[in-house]
Here is the input.
Amino acid sequence: MKITETKNGIFVLETKNYQYVIGAGELGIYHLHWGTPCPREDFEINELEEQNSNHSSLDFTPTEYAPYGGTIYREYALKCLFEDGCRDTVLKYKNSKITENTLELILNDDKYGLSVSLIYRLFEENDIIERYAVIRNQSKSKIILEKAASAEINLPGQRTYTVINSNGSWGGEFRKTEQKLETGTLSFESRKGTTGHNHLPALIAAEKPDEEYGEVYFAVLEWDGNYKISAERDFTGRTSAVIGLNDFDFSQTIECGKEFRTPSVFCGIAQGLGNMSRMMNRFAVSHILPKRFANETLPVLYNSWEATEFNVSEKGQLELAKTAAEIGCELFVMDDGWFSTRLSDNAGLGDWEVNRDKFPNGLKPLIDGVNALGMDFGIWVEPEMVNPRSELYEKHPDWTYNYETRTPSLLRHQLVLNMTKPEVKEYVFGFLDKLLSENNIKYIKWDMNRPFSETGTDNLENGKELWYRHSQAIYSIVDQLKEKHPDVQFEACASGGARTDLGSLSHFDMVWPSDNTDPVDRLDIQQGYSLLYPIKCMRAWVTDTNKTARPVSMAFRFAVSMQGSLSVGSDLTKLSKEEIEDCKKYIALYKKIRRTVQFGDLYRIMNYAEDKIYFNGYVNEDRSQAVYFACTGANSFFGNRFVNLKFKGLDENAVYTVKSEFRNYRKSGAYLMNKGIDIIYYKPLESEIFLLEKE
Ligand code: GLA
Here is the structure.
């Protein structure tokens, strides 16, 4: 049995390696244990009653979903405003429902007809527990939620934890951080409408963070939009966190008889950060990504943005497409600039007709041309935006978020459409449906290039609902389009990686993790991305960025981009013959290892901060193929040249052929993993790709 009620009100949940124990008590739903399994019948509830009037038991009792009410002074999970003005919630455990892999705990505030179901769904094999809450209004009046988190997470013991997250920015997403949470609260959030570039919507904590060793506790939110993770260490030394929708400017009205379901959070324990990434990678592929393409490898893509920017034309794109096909690309994506008055980022968003100066005969000749070259065609859109310089804005200025009394702030000369209006949703769905119905388009790059501001709505009774409703509107449009056009893949982009999260990835098939395509910077960005997110979904372009300012070989550029979903964004008309040959060579090699990279287990073996070299390996399921990428850094310190590369994840009893451009060995898995190979790299920014095949 995976879920057992051992005594009245004590629930033991078991995944492959761990146990999670909950007890329904007087003060609420208590958290009793999360970790290595213990005999189920040993668990009991010990109510902690502190008699000192300054310290409420509610503040140091580990709970699963505490509401704001009574003597709670710490972060809570739920806050309600009832019709009579009462803001105090008292939830009492009522009963439970257990199915094969789901536990539902039902709590009621009888006085106000409020019912809260805490859901725990077990993914036994993945060692993951999904948690969310369903909040129901069974009264005859409205209930307003002022906070509705997904879960409280309690970390075991009373030791200091280090919290791992990122300190990102535009062009510098996913840069990993580690902060000791000695006391007080650490919080990571977004108030921008999307997840944003700054932080991971997740809690990752370990006593001593390490790639390989020690327990890592993690809880990852499935939401794209305003979120908040707040982790607190209390005066008793215990650490807990509340995770979910941000309560900043948040409010949701639940009408009588209706319910509100919070986003899910996926929780697990891993031995080392490397294991966490591998667990989450597998989990996302089997349970998060949209099913249609989840198990398919993604095509090698060409994107025109860095080559042409807004200066797209039928002739220019076809010229790029010809070389893209020649080097082995399978999908050609035309980026921004193809529609209405879009000559720069000043105008055009919202008017989605083809620009007839650039494409006199519409998109068909280009798409036919691309298809004739053996590639699929994809296109860029930014559906939830409008430039004031557009026909759409002239006709419908009230379709944007705004207050009549305020001047809307322009960012990148554009405004956010009020996606909570049915007519706006219909318009966005309509133009995309038309675009996909009239053209042989197999790929949509859905962009979103600014945060929200002046978030007034003239259509919502409860204006603060816009944050939640906006994200839901995007999800529902993408889902509807996918239903009607099942063979189209969707990429989520938001000025680079501002829409990278499990929420997006449960509707979109992949993401654009950063506008920064400098290969050296990318190594850090990709490393941070790989902590939680699936490798196959990480689009990685080989481009000309910084090619003159800091020359980096094509070999190095490919060695970086081949560690995700390989793509090309170089100006192919300007590449030398040798560079074109390099492109062909590496794309052909990528196709051989693509399944291993996109679906294999990633080992982050060495990183620049500690080892002065990046060394990452990808091993397929039966360990018959593995590919490792070594990339040296930008400096030329003498000592950094001598490296001992130890491979990981191999079958120690098997013999592998190890091939790179420079080397050829035949060695046992045991030797490669335990002794490793000694190498001297002579230059900064050198790279080497090792392909290992089991004999
Ligand atoms: C954003 C994206 C880029 C590109 C441009 C087009 O910045 O992140 O990849 O699509 O918009 O305007």
Observations:
- The longest strand covers residues 143-155.
- The mean pLDDT is 97.
- The pocket of alpha-D-galactopyranose is lined by residues 305, 335-336, 380, 447, 449, 493, 495-496, 512, 515 (CB under 6 Å).
- The longest helix spans residues 577-599.
